[in-house]
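The instructor's notes for this session suggest beginning with a concrete chain rather than abstract definitions. Hand out the sequence below and ask the class to guess, before any prediction is shown, which regions might be ordered.
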Amino acid sequence: MTPGWLADHLAMLVGAWRAGRMPHALLLHEAPGAGGDWLATWVAQLMLCTAPAQAPPCGNCAGCRRALQGEHPDLLSVRPTDDSQQIRIEQVRELAQQLSFTSHQGGYKVAVVSPADAMNRFAANALLKTLEEPTARTVLIAVATQPAKLPATIRSRCQRIRVAAPSRAQALSWLTATRGAADWNAVLEIVGEAPMLAAQMDPAGAAQVGEEVCAALEGSLGGQLEPVATSERWVRSELGLRLQCVENWLTKRIRGHFGAAPFLTEVGAVPYSPERGTDLNIRALFGLLDGVRDLKSSLETPINRGLALEELLRRLASREIHDALTMTG
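After discussion, reveal the predicted structure:
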């Protein structure tokens, strides 16, 4: 089912395609779980559809089906390798070489880099060369939740599309239509307005884990968090989901401090909050949030998860974080 909150983006891209004005590079700046990868796949289908006369992409032709499955010969994908949380220069160089070849189907070639903000400095410089000298009839799509991590030279060469998080009603409608009736509201309370992420979960199990994590986090405000014991419990099951819960809990408190009504697509560190007329320095909260994200993205790498999580929980239980959380709550 097409996510309703992306309808305007789809209409804009179809209009550009019909007018022959499709940009050679797109930067999809997504709120986590809002559909950046889904939109990238849809754009690939748009460019590779073989029967687009009426309503591109048709979704039924061989081009659309193979693009959806990630098996189209003219669709290239670059993601972090299993043993790393980074996209490396070798991957980008291979991508550039593949894009220089003639397409297999005689049409467009599409490349998706996701998450683009996982590129290391050398990979980003290699991608810049591809953007500076784009091959004809190619579209490069970069998906990122933190585009500020990308060099300005890359951002300036891409047409940015902001994939904001949907409203709660839109998210619930899409989840029910896609996965069936369940307590999706409870899941979204845990993971945030991230329906694409919620759709991958078991609603009942996610809600149970979320309640446990939120109880521990609230307990940290009263000095009741035990980093060692909590770490030992969390690493045994659903650590990725637990870290997502922590990220969402911290993000809500930071947004609450700034009084931000809409669901922002990127939370970046600032030294203080002038809007609220306070000299409170909440950089420690942003640093903790980055630490949660870094650990979450490195779960597939050979790290000592227990020690890394214990260190993170010790930071959460520190006096500095306690004071910041108390003042932002």
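Then share the key points. The first helix runs from residue 7 to 18. The chain has 15 helices and five strands.
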